[in-house]
Amino acid sequence: MMRMLQNSLLHAGFVGLALLGLGAPRPAEAAPPLPQVDVTGPRPAADGARFLSVEDPTVRPGAEARAFARLTRDPLRWETPQGEELALLSTVAGGHFSLGLARGPARVALSLPVHAALAGDRRATGGVIGDPGLDLKLRAVEGAHGGLAAVGRLTAPLGAVDQAAGSPGWTAEAGLCGRVAAGPAGVGVQLGWRGLPAATPAGDDVLQTTYGDRLRLGLALGLGQGGPDDPAVAVELLGERELAEIGADWRSSPAELGLSGQWSPRPGGPRLLAAGAVGISAGVGAPLFRLQVGVGARQPPET
After folding, report:
1. Handedness of CA 51, 53, 54, 55 (dihedral sign)
2. pLDDT tens, residue by residue, 265-279
3. Cα–Cα distance between 86 and 61 in angstroms, integer?
4. CATH (one of 2.40.160.40, 1.10.1040.50, 3.40.50.450, 3.40.50.880) for 33-295
5. Which of 63, 169, 189, 252 could be disulfide-bonded to 197 (CB atoms 3.0-4.6 Å)?
6. 90-100 pLDDT, tens per residue?
7. How do residues 9-22 score in pLDDT, each as one tens digit?
């Protein structure tokens, strides 16, 4: 009798497990991978007191740290040749951190983007870092009505390439930034070259587009005296153009238009920053919108 009961329980258990297996949701098929395209977007300048992402030729001696929280919507939209738009990566929430040190006419800064959460139609999870960068600025000339400086950046391929948080290889940037001012009003321009490793397509025809070396352009219109405690507001236009495809494939040419403001509640206190931007092209990496809030702290050199 006991053996019959044990056999009955075993059979019932096997049947129950089989029914649970039939009723349980089956694992979804693995989503196609994301293309190897870094969607971090324009990085905030490590020491800008007038503009957010367009570099200013001003170099203020001392150390400065900045931390941003960032929310980006649809940073990886891909337009097919048939005109269909795909949101491969719909939301990126994270931050950006930088630490700069300036002495004389030179400034060196380290920057690190962080992607805390990612969501979209392609495989993405979040909790990853982007490519850390080493930023350089060397002031050539500066006066009451503006200035000129050389800028550069080198990024290491340590970010999560499979989640669009980094590049598959080292990247380098070199260019010039300048500003022309009339009182508190100023115009900033940044023009340069960005060397990128060729991106690997994600396996379907819609992603077959070039993504390599490119021309970078930044244009800013702002109000602000440029002091470490002075308030400032600016409108910025930021864009890139694929050098190998000029006049051809605009899917590799992102552009965005943004508005930023920054101020210090008290002299020598923390620097508060806020910004918003919208994508104005169908280029890969141009977001639907991007929001940023940040805080900065500066330590002047000891006298």
Report:
1. positive
2. 998 899 999 999 999
3. 46
4. 2.40.160.40
5. 169
6. 889 999 999 99
7. 344 443 333 333 33
